[in-house]
């Protein structure tokens, strides 16, 4: 496009640019060297363009970007920007514009000027359609350690995924569901997993080959070229082909490494979404694995990528374009193998969907459960209001904002003593475009910035399983004595249901039931009551009652209309009165 431009490369010891070219291609690792960065004068730079821009909020990126734009905050708090310096425009491009750690990309970018999600790209024929299979298998991901980024630690995850049983399951899944695919790309946990799974495929006579970070550059290029040419059907890798790989003929992706990172998962399945009409590719078959033992928060799958609960969906080889019918149509049947694999995978169920579009439709009308997003014990106090309360005088609250582009706001509430008075100080931590981003950002702040014992705030914290304290029971009973809502509504706010044999329980009966709850449940109940959840439940109940009355009237009216239009042999009557039972609140 610009044949007269000069182009240089700034990368490692081999490529050193002058800093004077029209266009310089560089790696951020190289530019982190102050001497290498200094040659690029902000006053002579017209723009900084970042590929894979979702990385830009990381401290390493902000460190070098602050050199070109003083409004980009340097990670070193003692760094003093040169305010008089020119502000070089920063442009970013990314197919996964979010971060698992919740770090706000607004620290670098001011506005998203163009965006297309996966469904739009599929519907507009920029990407191929997707066929989905989720394999439900009895794993135990709850035992897997997490790394500093909140994703599964590779060594710990490998002990669950790289076993003869699981590798056998992956091979059998491919043979059963995807053997007709021409080019299958598989993602594994680590190098040992890659090698063991490759051997498992070869044991069944499948020409599977592998690629790891240890593969030299020449061999890597030859292997990818052979795979592109369709010379063998299965290529297995770990952490090599996640970002930037251009292999359009891939028509099946198997995710054999569970992840809690939306970006990593999106990048893995994205390897198979490119169009390849010259190879006859019509869609890409995505196969992933869902743990049925422990519902570990934030484990990604195609359903959770769209905000759905994979355990509530029946995915039986469905195309994405028809999955949107899920809300309006009964669930599809589940195919359970007659002889499930034992050991770890002692119970296996295939769930297929023919398209991503139909899976997306399942999202409509279904609220994302915050326990699926975070490992912290967030409490839902009312719609779109979530609170994480600590033992100290600190809480973090997520609620709706008035900004349509950033509809969620995360605030820190801290109580301090000043002039003999206890006052509340509120600080806005961030805004977010989705609940998931807000939660991940809040979780990161809780772990790194608040100076509290964040491990006590986990769902799995041992104290939560202990019996209730006398103080907890007393607090809840005090709320009960002062509440203006009915007993059933109050118990719902606490987390209990009104027993069928207890239409009007005494305070003693309520207290006895509360004492059967554990310490964590009562801690959450007190948090809800402090935020007037009982009043919210009462308003919801009233709204539900009004809606039921409205629906009852509509049914009466429709029944009368149907009767008027019915022709039957017999005497004609001037009028007809329907015998309908009166609507009463007790029928609720």
Automatic annotation (TrEMBL):
Protein name: P-loop containing nucleoside triphosphate hydrolase protein
Gene3D superfamilies: P-loop containing nucleotide triphosphate hydrolases (3.40.50.300)
Pfam families with a match to the protein in the record: Helicase_C, ResIII
GO biological process assignments: mitochondrial DNA metabolic process; mitochondrial translational elongation
Residue stretches making up the Helicase ATP-binding domain: 1-115
A GO CC term assigned to this protein in UniProt: mitochondrial matrix
InterPro entries: Helicase/UvrB_N, Helicase_ATP-bd, Helicase_C-like, Helicase_Restrict-Modif_Enz, P-loop_NTPase
Origin superkingdom: Eukaryota
GO MF, any single term: hydrolase activity
Helicase C-terminal domain mapped to chain residues: 165-328
Keyword Nucleotide-binding: yes
């Amino acid at each position: 496009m610009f044949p007269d431009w000069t182009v240089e490369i700034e990368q490692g010891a081999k490529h050193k640019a002058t800093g004077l070219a029209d266009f310089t291609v560089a790696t951020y690792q190289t530019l982190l060297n102050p001497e290498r960065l200094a040659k690029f004068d902000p006053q002579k730079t017209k723009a900084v363009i970042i590929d894979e821009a979702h990385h830009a909020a990381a401290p390493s990126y902000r460190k070098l970007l602050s050199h070109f734009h003083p409004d980009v905050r340097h990670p070193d708090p003692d760094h003093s920007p040169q305010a008089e310096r020119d502000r070089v425009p920063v442009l970013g491009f990314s197919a996964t514009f979010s971060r698992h750690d919740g770090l706000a990309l607004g620290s670098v970018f001011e506005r998203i000027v163009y965006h297309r999600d996966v469904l739009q790209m599929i519907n507009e024929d920029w990407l191929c359609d997707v066929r989905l299979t989720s394999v439900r298998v009895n794993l135990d991901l709850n035992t897997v350690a997490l790394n500093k980024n909140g994703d599964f630690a590779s060594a710990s995850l490998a002990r669950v995924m790289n076993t003869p049983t699981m590798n056998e399951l992956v091979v059998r899944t491919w043979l059963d569901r995807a053997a007709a695919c021409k080019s299958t790309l598989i993602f594994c946990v680590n190098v040992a997993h890659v090698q063991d799974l490759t051997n498992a495929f070869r044991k069944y006579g499948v020409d599977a080959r592998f690629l790891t970070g240890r593969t030299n550059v020449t061999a890597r290029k030859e292997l990818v070229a052979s795979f592109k040419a369709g010379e063998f059907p299965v290529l297995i890798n770990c952490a090599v082909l996640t970002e930037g790989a251009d292999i359009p003929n891939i028509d099946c992706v198997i995710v054999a490494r569970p992840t809690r990172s939306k970006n990593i998962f999106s990048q893995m399945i994205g390897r198979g979404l490119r169009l390849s009409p010259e190879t006859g590719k019509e869609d890409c078959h995505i196969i992933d694995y869902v743990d049925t033992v422990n519902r570990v928060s934030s484990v990604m799958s195609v359903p959770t990528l769209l905000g759905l609960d994979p355990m509530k969906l029946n995915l039986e080889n469905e195309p994405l374009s028809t999955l949107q019918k899920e809300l309006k149509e009964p669930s599809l049947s589940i195919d359970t193998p007659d002889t499930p694999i034992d050991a770890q995978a002692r119970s296996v169920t295939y769930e297929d969907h023919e398209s991503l579009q139909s899976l997306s439709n399942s999202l409509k009308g279904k609220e994302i459960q915050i326990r699926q997003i975070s490992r912290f014990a967030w409490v839902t106090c009312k719609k779109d209001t979530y609170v994480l309360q600590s033992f100290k005088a600190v809480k973090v609250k997520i609620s709706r904002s008035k900004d349509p582009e950033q509809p969620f706001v995360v605030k820190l509430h801290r109580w301090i003593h000043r002039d003999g008075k206890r006052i509340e100080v509120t600080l806005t931590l961030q805004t977010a475009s989705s609940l998931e981003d807000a939660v991940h950002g809040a979780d990161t702040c809780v772990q790194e910035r608040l100076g509290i014992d964040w491990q006590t705030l986990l769902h799995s914290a041992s104290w939560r399983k202990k019996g209730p304290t006398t103080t907890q029971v007393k607090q809840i009973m005090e709320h009960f004595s002062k509440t203006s809502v009915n007993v059933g509504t109050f118990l719902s706010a606490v987390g209990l249901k009104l027993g069928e044999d207890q239409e009007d329980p005494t305070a003693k009966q309520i207290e006895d039931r509360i004492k059967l709850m554990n310490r964590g449940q009562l801690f959450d109940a007190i948090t809800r009551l402090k935020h007037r959840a009982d009043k919210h439940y009462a308003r919801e109940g009233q709204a539900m009652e009004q809606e039921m009355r409205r629906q009852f009237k509509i049914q009466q009216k429709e029944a009368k209309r149907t009767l008027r239009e019915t022709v039957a042999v017999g005497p004609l009557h001037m009028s007809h009165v329907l015998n309908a039972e009166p609507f009463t609140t007790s029928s609720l």
